[in-house]
Amino acid sequence: MTMSRRTRDEVVYALMRTWRASRLQTDLLDDAAFHKIGINRTDGRCLDALSEGPMPASVLAQACGISPNALTTVVDRLAERGLVERVKDPADRRRVLVRLTPLADHVSQQLYGPVVAWSLRNFEKYSTEELALIEGFIDAGRRFQAEHMRYIAALDLSWEVPDSPAGGTPEPG
């Protein structure tokens, strides 16, 4: 397969458009999955965070970007559906952890198993070094977005449009 010669700017803008489209498609996929099991986006975010393993409610609330009080409601809702459970921390019996249930794992496998399988098949196309490069790029973006959330929270947003528009994403010339 021959690839037409594109300038660096053309490739950068194509990458930015593709990345944005990929993020949108991931959001739409998640929305479809959440709708299928009758949960909302915040509930789904909590299930996703718990895929890293059991955690205290305070840690889960922080991972999901919600208040501890709101998390209690989310965990109650997910527990009613049989997707999470509260368990004693084996290391400290006074502490309670929230964890996914076998049902949550089963449902997740049905919904996202094909995505994982597709990813694993496609990772075979890349060398270990290329995969490490991609992982580093994605992780740097994740860290930047976490920092940018703090910027947005502190932003004094203006709703007055300047006379000469500034910003936006320029297209390659």
- Describe the largest sheet: 3 strands, antiparallel
What would the principal axes of the Cα set say about the shape? globular
- Using the CA coordinates, give the radius of gyration: 21 Å
CATH C-level of the domain at 8-101: Mainly Alpha
Strands ordered across the widest β-sheet: 1-3-2
Using brief descriptors, characterize the structure shown.
single chain, 173 residues, mainly alpha, Arc Repressor Mutant, subunit A, 3-stranded antiparallel beta sheet, 10% strand, globular
Condensed summary:
The protein is mainly alpha-helical and 173 residues long. 64% of the residues lie in helices and 10% in strands.
What report would you give on this structure?
- The chain is mainly alpha-helical and 173 residues long.
- It has a domain of 94 residues: Winged helix-like DNA-binding domain superfamily/Winged helix DNA-binding domain (Arc Repressor Mutant, subunit A).
- It has six helices and three strands.
- The longest helix has 30 residues.
- The model has no long low-confidence stretch (mean pLDDT 94).
Write the layout of secondary structure elements.
Blueprint: H1 8-37, H2 41-50, E1 55-56, H3 57-64, H4 68-80, E2 84-89, E3 92-100, H5 102-123, H6 128-154
Antiparallel strand pairs: 1-3, 2-3
